[in-house]
From TrEMBL:
EC number: 3.4.21.59
Domain Peptidase S1 residues, every copy: 23-259
General function of this protein: Tryptase is the major neutral protease present in mast cells and is secreted upon the coupled activation-degranulation response of this cell type.
Pfam families: Trypsin
Subunit structure: Homotetramer.
Catalyzed chemical reaction(s): Preferential cleavage: Arg-|-Xaa, Lys-|-Xaa, but with more restricted specificity than trypsin
SMART domains for this protein: Tryp_SPc
Gene Ontology MF terms in the entry: serine-type endopeptidase activity
Entry superkingdom: Eukaryota
Protein name: tryptase
Amino acid sequence: MRHLHEAGSWFRACGQTNISCKNVNGKLVEVGKWPWQVSILFLGMSICSGSLIHRQWVLTAAHCLQRSKDPLSYSVKMGVQSLLENGTERQVARITIHEDFTNLSQDLALLKLRDSVSWSPLIQPVCLPNPKLKPSFGSLCWMIGWGKVAQGHANPQSPYSLQEVAVKIINNDICNQQYKFLFLTNQKKLLGNDMICATSHLGMDTCQSNSGNSLVCQMDNSWIQMGVVTWSFSCNRRHFPAVYTSTSYFTNWMRKQIGDVKIVSRAGPACLSPVLLTSSILLISSGCLWLL
């Protein structure tokens, strides 16, 4: 795919990867596979993951930001495979938490960075879905981020290395049945339309420090973020799938929050070829790239 440049910036299109190998402590490590994934730091300590959806905006889970509402307490590290690397860091300027957030629903937040990031092979935005786009049941997607993916993981370095786990999308009705024991009196369901349920074939799933990790699915050679890790009842147990906040359910909300940024508008779709933009959210509709 041809690279496009503007004022020294590097950009292909949203949801694209640029895989290469890097020597880290004498070992070849694959980098650039998930270039939108960022680590959210609180007073310099990594607490959650997030994803770049724009030069100046990061998407994450609202419950990640309960320690403080002061944006100056938070920063974002990007362009790294391991949290032990320096990478690129940006200070957070504003925190926007969904107004209807509770511990179990509407668990979404946006972080506005004080300074815009420059695109590079290791720093790229992920695509967001059109509001009508839903992952079909049985679809194979990936959970990406830092943190443990299984209890008692043999590798003590695993929380510091970017992890990826293949997961299968399952019906919310099935998920509600499996979490029925958590229902309150007269409660008919726990998972609403704003949530997605997914489980791993290998029994590996979300564990501690996974909050804010991205759920991405591939469509027409582009990666689309369909969810944000919210919660799971127990780590590494197939009978208790992980629950994600659905991004397509909140696409319009996200656009509204970032309304002060210039948005590019076109009459029709540009089918996933390299696109040159400087400050736009990228939405996927029926496999094509809509610039809204």
